[in-house]
Design a protein that fits this description.
Elements (H helix, E strand, L loop, with lengths): L1 H14 L6 H11 L5 E3 L13 E6 L2 E12 L6 E7 L5 E7 L5 E6 L8 E10 L5 E3 L4 H37 L1 E2 L2 E2 L4 H26 L1
C-alpha cells in the first residue's frame, strides 16, 4: 500500500479538488502513467482549525513557502510533495515542490507499524515559482477533510484485508497442527481465540461498509 497510498489515494484526491492548470494536469498524468510518486503533507486529523500547515510568503518579488508536518505517508519515496499552504492573501493554496528541492527536508519518522513508512517534511523559506502554486476549486477545508478521509478509508480497507488473511491462515493452521494426538483447533483456548478474531473481523467489515456508504 505504501506508494499507492501517497500517490493514488492522497495526491489524486487532493489534485482533484484543485483548479485545472498546466501543472496540476501534468501531475495527474505523471501519477496515472506511473512516472512519478507524490506525497501529501496533510496534517494529522485532517483540516485543522489553525488552517493549512504551510505558509506562502511574498516579498520583493520573491515567493517562498515554510512550515512542517510530522507524519507524511510515503514522503521518503516521493518524487514530489504537495504542501497545503496559506497564501499571501490568506487564501489556501497547494504548493508542489520536488522532494530534493533546496530547503526541503524529508527525514524518516519511525513508527511501530513496519508495513508503512512516514516522514517529517519541513520547508524553510523554500523559493517557489508561481506555476507551482495551485488554487483550490472548492472549499479548501472540505477538500482537505476529504483527502484525510480517503487516506483513513484506504488504510482501514488494507487493515481489514490483512486481518481476514491472518484469520484464514490461523484457522487453517489450527485445523492441521496436531498436539497430543488432536488438532489444536479442538482445544477451547484456541477455539475461543479464533472466535474472538472472527468477531473482530466481522465488526471491522461492518464499520468499513458503513464508511463506504457514508
Amino acid at each position: 500500500l505504501a506508494p499507492y497510498l501517497g500517490s493514488v489515494v492522497l495526491a489524486v484526491g487532493l489534485l482533484g479538488g484543485l483548479e485545472p492548470s498546466a501543472g496540476r494536469d501534468a501531475a495527474l498524468r505523471a501519477i496515472s502513467g506511473g512516472r512519478e510518486r507524490f506525497a501529501v503533507a496533510v496534517p494529522a486529523g485532517g483540516s485543522e482549525a489553525t488552517g493549512p500547515p504551510f505558509r506562502v510568503q511574498e516579498a520583493g518579488g520573491r515567493v517562498t513557502v515554510r512550515g512542517a508536518v510530522p507524519f507524511v505517508a510515503d514522503g521518503l519515496e516521493a518524487h514530489r510533495l504537495l504542501l497545503p499552504a496559506m497564501g499571501p492573501d490568506d487564501r489556501p493554496v497547494v504548493v508542489c515542490v520536488a522532494r530534493d528541492h533546496p530547503g526541503v527536508e524529508v527525514t524518516p519518522r519511525p513508527v511501530v507499524d513496519g508495513t508503512r513508512r512516514f516522514a517529517v517534511v519541513t520547508a524553510d523559506e523554500v523559493p517557489v515559482d508561481g506555476g507551482s502554486v495551485w488554487a483550490f476549486s472548492a472549499d479548501p477545508d472540505a477538500t482537505l477533510r476529504n483527502v484525510y478521509d480517503r487516506g483513513s478509508f484506504a488504510v482501514a480497507c488494507d487493515s481489514l484485508g490483512l486481518a481476514e488473511a491472518m484469520l484464514d491462515v490461523t484457522v487453517d493452521y489450527a485445523g492441521t497442527r496436531r498436539q497430543f494426538g488432536r488438532p489444536i483447533g479442538s482445544f477451547p483456548a484456541v477455539k475461543h481465540t479464533c472466535a474472538a478474531m472472527y468477531v473482530q473481523v466481522r465488526v471491522g467489515r461492518a464499520l468499513v461498509a458503513a464508511a463506504e456508504g457514508a
